[in-house]
Amino acid sequence: MADINSKVIITCAITGSIHTPSMSPYLPLSPEQIAVQAIDAANAGAAMLHLHARDPETGQPTPDPSVFRQFVPRIRDATDAIIALTTGGSASMSLDERLQAPSELRPEMCSLNMGTMNFGIFPLAQKERTWIHQWERSFLESSRSGMFRNTFADIEKIICRMSEMGTRFEFECYDIGHLYTLAYFLEQSLVKPPLFIQSVVGILGGIGSDHESLQQMRATADRLFGSDYQWSVLAAGRSQMRLGTMAALMGGHVRVGLEDNLWLEKGRLAPDNASQVTKMRCILSELELEVATPSQARELLGITTRS
Fold first, then answer.
1. How many Å apart are CA 7 and CA 3, to the nearest integer?
2. Peptide bond into 56 cis (omega under 30)
3. pLDDT in tens, the chain (307 residues)
4. Which whole-number Å values give the CA distances from 249 to 4, 179, 207, 231, 239, in the listed order?
5. Phi/psi zone of residue 256: left (φ > 0), alpha (ψ -120 to 50 degrees), beta?
6. Which of 59, 141, 215, 271 has the most CB atoms lying inside 10 A of its own CB?
């Protein structure tokens, strides 16, 4: 279990695949915007950058490696931050599509979702707004009848494919059962400590964004993994800063970024990803907690070489 006096890793998730262009003018969509916002977030204190790609014309999530190649090398050259590529992509992508960019770009870390689940983002389609693109509303509504597929076979394929390249994993656990799934893969020696567990709270279909759920996730991880893991919290929406702060006080790490939350405070959209990193860094400073540098984060997470 992470010591409360250890360095706190701030991960910043730059754009993701949940929010659509009509929801915020500040959501980075083009490779240029993604690169600039990622570099700024790293300069603000993010030790890890979690990256998705968007179609430059429509802003729709894309698995196309050629789009990733337009921003990933630039970010690598400009920062020392850990590059973490998604293998989740979006629920509409096949597993082979989701693996294309990580397989080609061989990142230090990639995300790994630990279970098939209902992933309900359809309530976002119900808010009155002017839609910029035709695809947005139907994309959101499709989550009402669809699912986010991550079977045992899918997870094993990702582990085997990416482990061969030396990539380590951000294990995204949306519910208690996902922790037990991860424990199974640890028992099978398919993954190795230190595990980086990202507790994801506040997604409709997963565990809720409340203090009790966070404590339950932490207690279960302690019981299953002991000292063999580093723990971080991704709180979706308005709970981002509140539960991120709670996670840090519990000895954990924290993830921010426009993938998870478009707002900086009530009634005010975040103007960029760096503003959320800066806000979290200020909170941690007030709590006398030190933010990890990229090299310190690599040491904590067992990353031996920079990509």
1. 9
2. no
3. 444 447 999 999 999 999 999 999 999 999 999 999 999 999 999 999 999 999 999 999 999 999 999 999 999 999 999 999 999 999 999 999 999 999 999 999 999 999 999 999 999 999 889 999 999 999 999 999 999 999 999 999 999 999 999 999 999 999 999 999 999 999 999 999 999 999 999 999 999 999 999 999 999 999 999 999 999 999 999 999 999 999 999 999 999 999 999 999 999 999 999 999 999 999 999 999 999 999 999 999 999 877 6
4. 7, 21, 20, 12, 15
5. beta
6. 59
Chain Cα centroid distance, residue 46: 12
3-class state of residue 73 by DSSP: helix
Question: Whole-model pTM?
Answer: 0.96
Exposure class string for 273-300: b at 16+ Cβ within 10 A, else e: bbbbbbbbbebbeeeebebbebebbbeb
